């Protein structure tokens, strides 16, 4: 199938027909605004031309590149790991928030907020080597399935965003993930799924240390918070990891507001956009109030700041990749 599509594209190009780089996007103002921005910033001689070294585009992950309902996928991973490790921790049967997870009451398990989540994260992510953690994530992605769609979690990605990532890179942009999710968690699948290599992933993290285990040098994750890459932390994370202010930023919630604000406040052409979850039939419909991915301030201020609000319902003719095609960007 891919070979046929590639040959068809080459034939169309040879005959002078333009190939749509964003076929999963409906023709309209938002699609044209995105394509126009990319064209004017990458065309030599354009007054808005941006040098290749400055072409940085950043993307949130949860709710922007892949789905985030009914819970953040990394939270589901954490719950599954608690259940898997429970036989080695009999104390968890009576110790919160683990007891609630084992009873299937995830709402109660998360009622303790960030403190409870950090406790569960430390229990499932720390005191193991980075290689061991990576393998646990790979094993989970290979076996776990989304409760609604029955897809693998790394197939719950948005086809329109895969196309956008590929088109940006084809035009000389470097694409980065900037997410509140765990940096080590996302680095396991980001390159295969999105075409974004590990060094271009920025996320929240635990502290780590170097040590020898059985004479072998390893990096060990330890149960201490290192950095939260969310809200005002996102511009800081970008500065510390990239060192260049992006020219384009894509998010989906108020947790991405500061990242988009900082990106678009720079000189020259800038692009900021929110993905709006307004398609209850093909995905989910939510913005505010919402237990996850709340978008209130962003919706209110986007028009005043000339930021785009990308409607899943109106701007995208396809949400997820076809089931016979792997969820993977070139």
TrEMBL record:
Enzyme class per UniProt: hydrolase
InterPro entries hit by this protein: HAD-like_SerB, HAD-like_sf, HAD_sf
GO CC terms: cytoplasm
Annotated metabolic or biological route of this protein: Amino-acid biosynthesis; L-serine biosynthesis; L-serine from 3-phospho-D-glycerate: step 3/3
UniProt-listed SUPFAM superfamilies: HAD-like
Gene Ontology molecular function, alphabetical: L-phosphoserine phosphatase activity; magnesium ion binding
Keyword Lipid metabolism among record annotations: no
Keywords, alphabetical: Amino-acid biosynthesis, Hydrolase, Magnesium, Metal-binding, Serine biosynthesis, Signal
Catalyzed reaction equations: O-phospho-L-serine + H2O = L-serine + phosphate; O-phospho-D-serine + H2O = D-serine + phosphate
Endpoints of the signal sequence: 1-18
EC identifiers of the protein: 3.1.3.3
Cofactor(s) the record lists: Mg(2+)
Protein name: phosphoserine phosphatase
